[in-house]
């Protein structure tokens, strides 16, 4: 009897020993595996990355996990907002990307099944990139800084990119052949000076001011895709709400521009005139004020008389190409021209007969 109890005790001890060894071994494997998996989970934060306060979801992990066999630009506004600005939940649905035109042949349905793909052209000699949108319409965007994750690139400064995208719809100029007297066909400003105009555009843009074509420059671009030959200056406008207090100081210290004239005050009829140093182009910058359904700019006469020029409200900007450079224009350009120049805006009006404070229709 004693021998049977001893044998039973030995057997039970052996069973418990093997169970303990098996459990400990598998516990170590499970723990190690869980630790390995945990390091790859979306909520595991890598240095320099942000986490959603609400969910612990890593903001950029979806970009890290994307794959493509060619370089691609992420242009999906909702996806970019959600993963880089709002730091929200994972994004579901197809992601809009742009692939360079030269790589079109490498885009196949299998690799790109999770993306909505459009194509863009990137000419290094231009100051913009051109995107053909899903509806076949062209978009023109200034060159912007990007950061990379694998073969994907996305904007470094998303708020600036969103502003560019909102104003990127391209409007084509008409390219009309305008009859002129020989004396009015003689060009006053060398067209090479367009580089100075683009340089001033970038100067203002760096201060958060988005200039757009105005006055005779808007008319010349839309009507004949150029600068009006007999014009003696070019015109920009910008929203008064974008005025930067550092503007005058920057102009006074600029190596590229000479500050020539300031009229009005920031709150009313403000106008700044500069001359470019390279090609000596005079450029007027008018600040635009909004009231109700209208926008207006002001002018100041030699006797300090004040003039107001009213337009249909400029609610949005589009993009134009002028002499192979991008510029912004009011999207309601035709309304603006008809208001300022009347129904005969297609007919040339020589600068020698144009009076700035009486020849406008508005």
TrEMBL record:
| GO cellular component: a single term | membrane
InterPro entries on file: FKTN/MNN4/W02B3.4-1 (IPR009644), W02B3_4_N (IPR057641)
Q: Which UniProt keywords apply?
A: Membrane, Transmembrane, Transmembrane helix
What membrane topology does the annotation report for this chain? Single-pass membrane protein
Protein name, entry field: W02B3.4-like N-terminal domain-containing protein
Main localization of the protein? Answer: membrane
**A Pfam family that the UniProt record links to this protein:** W02B3_4_N
Where in or outside the cell it occurs: the entry states: Membrane
Give the transmembrane ranges.
Answer: 6-23
Q: Does the keyword RNA-binding apply?
A: no
Q: Where is the W02B3.4-like N-terminal domain?
A: 59-172
